[in-house]
Records
---
Amino acid sequence: MVRRTMAAMLSFALVAAGCGGDDPATDGDATSAADGDTLERPEGTDSDVAGDEGGADDGGDLEDPDQLTSEGEGQAGADLTPVPGGEVTWGLTNDGTGFDTTGAVAPGSIRIITALTDPLVAGTPGGGWAPNLAESLTPNEDFTVWTITLRPGVRFHDGEPVDAEALVANLEAFRTGPVSGFAFTAVDEVVAVDELAAEVRMNTPWGAFPFILINQAGWLVSPSTLGTNDDFVSTGPFMLESWTPGDGARVVRNPDYWREGLPYLDAINFKFIPEQPVKRQALEAGDIDGYISPGDQDILDFLDDDGVDVWIGEASANEYAYILNTAVAPTNDIRVRRGLAHAIDRDLVIDTFRSGLTEKASSSQTPGSLFHHETDYPDYDPELAAELIAEYEAEVEPVQFSVKLEPNPAVREVVDLVASFWEDAGAEVEIEEIGGGQSALTAISDDFQVFSWFQFSSIDPDGDYPFFHSDGGSNILNWSNLVSEKIDEGLDIGRANADPETRRPGYATFQEALAEELPILWIDHLNGIEAAVTRPELHGIGPRDELPDGGEALGMINGSFFTWTDVWLEQ
Amino acid sequence: MTAAIVRRLLRLAVIVLIVTFTTFLLLDATPGDPAVWKLGINADPELLAQTRAELGLDRPLLVRYLDWLGDAARLDFGESFFTEVSSWTLIRRALPKTIELMVLAEIMALAISVPLAIAAARRPGSWIDRWSSGSAFALLALPAFILALYLSYVFAVRLGWFPTIVTDLPGLNEDPLENLRQMFLPALTLALNLVAVYLRLLRSDLIDTLQEDYVMLAQARGLGDRRIMWRHVLRPSSLNLTTAIGLNVAGLIGGALIVERFFAINGIGQLLIVSIVGKEFFVASAIVLLLTVAYVVVNFCVDLLYSVLDPRIRSGIR
Amino acid sequence: MASVSRWRAVTPAGRALRLGTAFWLSVAWIALLVFLGVFEDVLPIRDADARGIRTGEVERFEGPGWNAWFGGGPQGEDQLARVVAGIRPALTLGLVVTALAALVGGALGVTAGYARGRIDAVTTAAIDIALAFPALVLLIAVRSTFGNSLLVFIAIFTITSIPPYARIVRGATLALAEREFVDAARSMGASTRRILLKELAPNLVLPVLSFAAIGFAVVILTEGALAFLGLSIDQVTWGALIAEGTGEIRNHPHVALVPATVMFMTILAFNLVGDGLRELTAPRTVATVRRLEVEGDRVAPVGEPVLHVHDLRTTLHTPAGPVHAVDGVGFDLSAGEALGIVGESGSGKTMVLRSIVGAFPLAGVTRAGTVDVCGVDMLRAPRAVVQHTLGTCVGMVSQNPLTALNPTRRIEAQIVEPMVVHGGLDRKAARSRALELMQHVGIPAPERRLREYPHQLSGGMRQRVTIAIALANRPQVLLADEPTTALDVTVQNQILELLGRLRREERMAMVLVTHDLAVVHGFTDRVAIMYAGQIVEQGPTEEIFSNPRHQYTIALMGSIPDLDLPSHSRLKTIVGSPPSLTDLPPGCRFAERCRFADERCRAEAPPATGPARHGYRCWHPGVEPPVEVGRGR
């Protein structure tokens, strides 16, 4: 749909706050804690979230992305040999605000950074991780110490060596950074143990630690440039040539890139194009080579278009949801929460605003993910909803509450529809946009009853820890204020172990408790409408990348890890 | 003459003071805290306070304003809270494009509206009069964002004559053709909304002037219509048009904002709105200062132009 | 005064103005909008907030059709219902803001422009501040503080709209305040308020109305742009609907285009109605040379007069119907001969001159009959020939030297122009001839004067300049339209002497139009008395004065022209007023005011009678020398 303008503008401000426009999760700390994905948030979510058309596929989870490309490029160059050279212009939905790796990095900046850096760790299909810039990561017995070993001979863009000293400087800066530090509260110190290795020492077992190094925490910059906002001197395939706030950036090939023969492209021009229809026409006119589509409409329209390839994401993205404040009436009563949950026809929301491309959510884990657990999360049942509401009203008082949302027209449409469900169930709903320029995060930390929310999801469910663990009620990021032993217990088990078989029951408990207590009403997983649309001449954008040591990593469109290393242009 | 200039400068100074202070006041009144945005909400209060102090947000508004003013007097307009880029750098990057956009748009609007107004004024009520004012109104009544999309679709996507977005704009002195090729559609979009206003103003003033005795006498002297129109009528009829152009300087920024968004131009319009929404006191005030000076200077030029156009003003009769 | 009379006068009786189909269609459209806006709640249309996806009545993006006339929106909303729901905010915002801003801005502008001095300085500075300040900043700040209700928007829009109105009105006031009629009112001791209300306000209504039409459009459009930015009112508006449809414009164009069309038609309708109303208050159709039409054949002159006019009939086609301004006028003029044309204001005497040169301030003129100048058929000859003849053979001096010269061009350019265009002189030769002419018409220090602009000259000097221009190409005919009326008495005589001298020296034929019999006497060889578009009596000057035959002439002789009266005031000594030129009586046109009028006078038009050298149109020609016919003052 439309009207992203303001949304995009706001995202600038909010994002600066730490990513928040739509996904609140994002504030610097919060997010980081959220997991590897941390500070990033998928581009364009603000803008779009709405779309149309119906026809969801089976909830079967990972769709084969190849099916979704409009032509036979599915295997990302299976029968085509990459050739070096060429320049690409890439459309950005959000503007960048700079490159300070210890601050909150805006989505627009992250899109640029992905061409400039290699994170220490990469996410792999199926929900695992693999070393990337790091040669290896090894934990001790109880996951309280992780040893990170670097590859020899790697240098930053300015020629400085990538050694243990630089690693410690970066991780320490992240740990002590005012904004980023929250994600590293479990880390006590980072200590170099030899030329190329450093130990990360925890105050508590942290089996999922490597996941956080997939993103911001895992970016290494030349120590002399740590904390600078207007430059980014890292290790990646491209080097920052120029950056103009409000316009974009130009990056050029790193001739001394540590991976032989890579990258292929000579340069990438990132161009900030706030208006969705303009991005689209620019792609059609050949003025840009691709962009991350912020909505379902492009996917639908371009699927049948031989002139455009579409790559749909399969893994971690945001979930759209409503946070219920369990500390105030009427949402402190489980009957009300349950009634509101039953009232929402999520299929209709998905058909209407996502063209049926997304899946219903019952937790932050997509149905295909390793830790997904089937729960009996309340489904659409208007009669039951009305009954529950009526019961509460009979006993206590009329159900009246306000739903807060950021002033984003696209989100507003969804909230309007959801509110109409709630009103049908007998509630009296007031919709309240938070003031222009006010951060969603600020707003939610104030009094609220119901808040329209984008929950930042992560490859690993440990990312949910900061948002749902009550910490005995002291965790301010636990927005719903719910204190639940089951939830805390489940999350603790997941954090303290590395073996999936041990962690799975913990997360099962967690997800069951969520479905019972309903501190948050899930709508859908948004990964189905996050896609890259590109000109067919551009290859290597797909869902998978190749790891330096062989094997597959999650590619550009799958959540946060997004690399330009092996992208090439047909000449 | 000197006294007049001094008086004008004084007045400019007063206007600048009021306008920039108002900007501070208004931005201060909007909700939100740049420190919170910068740090994220989980930042602990101490850090927030520290950041506020760093950004200077802890001090009273008036002190902040006077500080900024003092710096501004030394041409230091502060820097953006978020990008930490100096206001001046941001403006310097954005300004040339916006100025070019506005100047091109004015030229295009005049190039379209003046001949149409003349044709219409020569034969009021004729088909050309009806059609020109009808189409001009159609263009006026069409929101710029629709216009931008359609122009872009037809001339960029379908015909491929112009690009859909402005990227890597070469300077007018480096590659004027490519520069104009990129700026053509944005400027046209902005211009088309102006045509109706200019056309209407000029047409009615032309008609007024056409009724003057001296025009009748010029006809009686056997001078040709064209000569009468261009030599006798156009100049005395262009005062209101000139005023409108001068007044438009501030107004065009609003129009430029939309056009800039739709052609991905990082101009002043975009910078301004991002700065307002982000409570960027320094950047916003610097832009407002700049716009004010531009407005006053342009209108000073308009006044000068007046006296060129109408000698009576020169000698203070009007 | 000229421009005032242009606006105020010439509204012919009846005001039977045809406003045209477009106007009435526009009125109908606005009426429809108002009706829908007022009764939207009781009309059988769907709820604007109802979502088709829930009710099942309208599909998402359903095309326009029987089910939903304007199609369906993104959630299956009935677009018709939403467009109707957008009427109230649009009209309220547009009209209230425009009205408030025009009133407040107008008041500020008038005060500043009229009071001048300190009040003006402060107001202008305030206007400048307001105009220089980006409205967007104000809007975002105010909106985030006070919310986005319609009321807040009306306030913001009004505040930001006031300055342009104030500035325009101030400018207009400054210009008007210098006009003679305001000065006149002031000198007559009228109170400030009275001047503002009675004299200024009516003349300011037009520019304000004209600006308001655009202003209304701008308000509605700005709301649309704000809606697009997500900064608009918290209700369904057309702007919001269009903005919502923008992203769908490729797949479902109707979502944006239908409300855009409605908005467009509304803006257009208000402008057309505004234009129509303006026409009503100030009907004017305007000079267009091309609309000059010619009827009938040429009648060749007898002998070789320099100027030959025969049965000239000039009809002005005005919105109020055809005006027979000149109705069968004829006269011949030989070299060196002077003809005086005398008549009241509106008798058509000026029109005779304009008909000769073919320059009219009004659109749609038909001329019939014959006008030969220097042997050229001025009605039927090719355009270029006519223009050349005008440039070389005819000179014209008009009534008001203040308006006869182009204020924006130097004297030199204006004198030289006809010589360069028609006289075949180069610039240098033209300049020396111009100097010569300036001396000839008695302008001291001509070198300096040539470089000056008209406003730097006194009225008498300006008239000398217009005479110099008229003489530029040594014309054989000089047409002088009340050349002295606007000048003060001493200058009048100088100008008359100058004209007399020139006529003798250059042996020019001259037509002198005046209402001043004293001017005619002793200056002209012959006199034609005009009444209601006709020459009612024509003969040698001495004979007309000594033996007037037409009762009107007789009455005229009895009235003493009063030099103190403004030029166009009627000769009050004759009771009554001339008939309307749009509705002429069948009989004698003077019958209504004539003491001797009888049945025949009222029924039958008197033919031209009398000897060739002294003709008249009267059933009861006077025989006695005129003594005390008029009653004096």
---
Amino acid sequence: MRNTQRSQKIAFFLLFLATLLIVLPVGLIVVIIVQKGLPAINWQFLSDIPRQGMRTGGIFPAIVGTLYLVLGAIIFALPIGLLAAVYLSEYAKDNLLNRIIKLAIINLSGVPSVVYGLFGLALFVVFLKFGASILSGSLTLGIMILPIIITTSREALESVPQSFREVSLSLGASKWQTIRHIVLPNAIPGILTGTILGLGRAAGETAPILFTVAAFYLPRLPKSIFDQAMALPYHLYVISTQVPNVDEKVRYGTALVLLFLVLVMNLVAIIIRYNFRKKKKW
Amino acid sequence: MNLRKFKEFSIERLVLICGLASIFFVILIFLFLTKEGLAVFKSVTPANFIFGKSWYPISEPARLGILPLIFGSLIVTLGAAIISIPIGVACAIYIAEIAPLKIKEILKAGIELLAAIPSVVLGFIGMVTLVPWVKSTFNLPTGLTALSGAIILAFMAMPTIVSVAEDALYSVPKSYKEGAFALGATHWQTIYRVLLPAASSGIVAAVMLGIGRVIGETMAVMMITGNAAVIPQSILVPVRTLTATIAAEMGEAVVGSEHYFALFAIGIVLFIMSFIINVTADLFLHKRRN
């Protein structure tokens, strides 16, 4: 008996150790980037264009480019993703078609990001002749985040109790009226969570924008959706591998801004979800 | 009344079309990859493409064998799997079974944080911390090796493995656990004799999805594996993966050239691999529910 107790203690300790092995480096990564990146952050760094071959100056065009791309991706992906989620949760019957759609979503979320880049290049840049542009990049990112938005929105819609729908229908509302006025409002926090997670993913990805939009160096702001743009993740890649002798501070500073952007989005999503679960009345 | 019916009908159609969008996009991706990629087989046979031992895409004549790249991907993926599977599954058990509720929430948030860190940031951190460490520890000419890539990729696979495996453990019926306790088993005995076997297909799915993530990962790998397109003899040499090849070379490839087609053909290989992995993982997840 003592033996089994001891082996349990050892086993649990090892499991705890494994957990630390994952969580500690995560903390360490964030701490290192904040510590070394923070000294680089000032108003000039955030608002100036890169100067002297990107070795000094700021990262303003990259920040703006990333914001445009993320915005474009969500404008494209949110309506389609949300309606697809409505279909899966409210209209779809449990049949072969439904199964194929779910399989397609799983596959879409598993396609390597660089393959999205190839696809965007072939379809948007070359075939549709959008060129390397914000439009091509946004559409590519939009398709990439579609599965995230569909899956989280569907969960949110499905978690609205069946009785809500039944009451609405029994009062004479049509199916769409029920969805529009009863189901969707109750699912908004969940949909918001998914949307923000999608935004975060789109902001951090590099491979899909490599050949569809990203400019190596473009010291002005894009004027239209057919312009190329700089983007934060690609900029970080460029200054840490392609340009020699960049001040460490600039690299860490860029990494910090990107990390901050992505983590804030995720944090907001986590908080919304947490509050929603706490407040849920059913 | 008719107007309302018409509205209902058109909305139903619209929603259905959006529902079908994901199928449409999967097919579209496949079509465009094959449209550009299959052209490479005019200049090289499929067998020579897959099993060719040299990748010199811009020499005259170009040699387009992706075997070194496949090996590069394999060795990095294998390394990452060896590191991430035991640690990831152990962490999932800890979170699902042992951690107190408060700590559990914090740990889950930490794992989510890890999943959220952009791969280019992990690549950058790997470059400035891990690469010098590998170089000095193993006394190598360069720290840009398959091992460095495997370690960073293990981290990127972890969130997937932990969250899917934790779900699998969590969905084992409570009665299994209660039954084991009633028979006098300790908590640990219950975990590895009852819970783990009951959740095994979900855990297999978790591992597969994690590996899928690793094979498809691009930026971090490109930044820290050294990008040498030769068949690796050990884990301590630079390698180049399938994904990194596309990312590194597509910028220079001329649209419509042999090189361009070859990179798309690599894309087809990756697409098919991820397709197989995801479908199988889904089957395992489904098996659990039945």
---
Amino acid sequence: MKKNKLLLTALAVILAMGVMVAPALAYFTAHTEAAGGINLDLGHKTTIDEEFYDWGKKITVSNEGPESCYVRVQAFSSERLEVTPSGAWTDGGDGWWYYNGVVDAGKSTDVLDIAIKDKAEAEIVDGQIVDVAVVYESMKVVYDEDGNPDPADPTDPTIWKTKGNPAYEGSGE
Amino acid sequence: MKAGRKRSSVFTGALLVLAIAALLFGGIGSARAVLTPSDEYIADIATKDIALELYENGDPVEDGALLTGLLAEGESLKIGQVYDESLTVKNTGTIDQYMRVSVYKYWTNDGKRTDLDPALIKLELGDGWVEDTAASTPERTVLYYTEKVVVGDETAPFVTGIGVDPSLATMVEQTTSEDGKTITTTYKYDDLMFNLEVSVDGVQDHNAADAAKSAWGVDVTVDEDAGTLSL
């Protein structure tokens, strides 16, 4: 009986001390938090438009977006071709014609005129099909830390031989 | 034995009388307190208050929402560009504090995407903060402000810029239509959201090392005279 009383008393003292000690260990603290995000709308869809006339066709490439891109074009034929650029088209000297500028979403390139050169009447065979194949590549515009296009010069052939050009062998993840 | 019982009864009786007397006089005292008019004395007791507020580009963050003004309306994020994003903390309480922040960056698309690389979200960190590399992960950066933040003061920015790594542009696929006229380019990170989340903690400057240990569970070294903190 006496032992129980002692135990109860001890327990009461410990509880009382615990109640008193807890506030002494509390420190002043503060907390706040915040969050936010930005959605990425990547990718671009480009279409080449060909307007035919006698012995040639006029090429433009349009970008439906949503992002800006660079463009280059190359033409192949068994015939001799003459390319007449307008606006920002630049001969890369490597068979490609580079559009020297950013094609923003919703915009098109200037016209690139590709024609069969000096086809003599005598060479024309009735029913003969003459192919002029045109291929093109588009590459996303990436920016430097200050928001300027990087690389800045899309007429530099070396930038098209990087992973930034999806058509380049070795690109992709 | 009988004498002992008698003494006990007397003691108990005395206690009873004392208790009744205490109750009676206590009651009367209370009644007097109610009935007796007295002069009024007003004492201003200032309680200590600890508080802090997160600031984004010089303005307090409202409703806990970050990055709301990063882009103008209709503007798309330029991959590779580092946008100005200044995050600071202000001591808005009445006691000086030491502070730490945890900065989280991650991708979401109908929920958190832990399979995508948070390192592709670029954060530029500011000076005056020391990183707890042991607590940091690719997703979380834990920073401690190295100076005491006195009442009303603001820290140096712990984040100064944010952007997306340009290497993200290489994770791409292209498909060409059957007629060869249309090329569609799609990116692995298209239609994803990059997220920035910030958690800020402050502790009192007195016994700050113990306070940090108690509140945050970390060991920090505080020079209370110099008002500096180190890990």
